[in-house]
């Protein structure tokens, strides 16, 4: 592991507090496929937990009729999910009645045609409208969009254009929406949300900071590392999170390009550059013998840096543990020398 400023592409921004005055802060990270991760929490759980916390932390609900639903759209690198939370009378989500729908590819795949990004939300919004009970109920329901590393990887102008397209779709959706509710959340916040979810699930949230667990979270495009720390931390890697009476000082960092899909892509690039591909077939020692897979690589960086030739690659596994281990270590070593950082 490694501490210190790695996370590529972080932009300085004021530390967020985890509390918004009245609105439930309902974030949502998104993971890619969960093949390799040791600790991989469902995004639904995460969103639910953070929504719950936001409610716990908000001022007690007063007479005003509280909305019965809350919709959070999670823009991940591999797909976009709509979480429809049904809120109980106490304002907390009623998990049994919450619903989720996912579409793929993710918002970042619209880099070359940003105006169409909003369109991709339409089936999700229709789904959500149906779940909340139609137009009338939608008008009383807030919808938020939180995007993660897929969009963080894009150039700012492209990222903004995608958000603009999404905001247009959300504004026209019939749900309650304000432009500031659609945004790309910083990687460090993503890590904090994952930490909250993990510790909530473990029953360690609310107790002794030193008995909480740290998390390594693998998303599709980025990885997050978050834990309670007593050390003096650089401000941009430090977050104070208050739950009940306890304030947790967290180290939270996000490593762009270190999500599992991004890591596998880098790994394949490395195999190819080392001559492991023959006649359109890439022999992968980390995949089991007999495994064969035609691989479609989606452009992650706006399409410019990846050729379509990659689409023609076939992965064949050779199931060679020693080779897998040494080539994986080699990749991490390469990472160390580059500006991307290290594992
Ligand atoms: C967190 O709280 C501590 C103690 O109150 C303070 O010294 C520190 O500056 C705070 N950090 C952030 C990021 O707000
Ligand atoms: C390479 O692939 C082509 C078509 O898949 C096949 O006709 C050819 O024999 C292969 N060459 C070698 C050296 O395997
Ligand atoms: C890859 O796997 C396929 C299907 O098992 C097999 O037909 C092909 O010969 C393999 N190619 C290489 C280069 O091992």
UniProtKB/TrEMBL annotation:
UniProt record, GO biological process: nucleoside diphosphate catabolic process
Membrane-spanning intervals of the chain: 36-57
Residue ranges, annotated region (Disordered): 1-30
Keyword Transmembrane helix set for record: yes
GO molecular-function terms, A-Z: ATP binding; nucleoside diphosphate phosphatase activity
Comp. bias intervals (Gly residues): 1-10
Record Pfam families: GDA1_CD39 (PF01150)
Active-site annotation: 190 (proton acceptor)
Binding site for ATP: 220-224
Keyword terms: ATP-binding, Hydrolase, Membrane, Nucleotide-binding, Transmembrane, Transmembrane helix
Keyword NAD in annotation: no
One GO CC annotation: membrane
Family the UniProt entry places it in: Belongs to the GDA1/CD39 NTPase family.
Protein name: Apyrase
Native source organism of the sequence: Aegilops tauschii subsp. strangulata
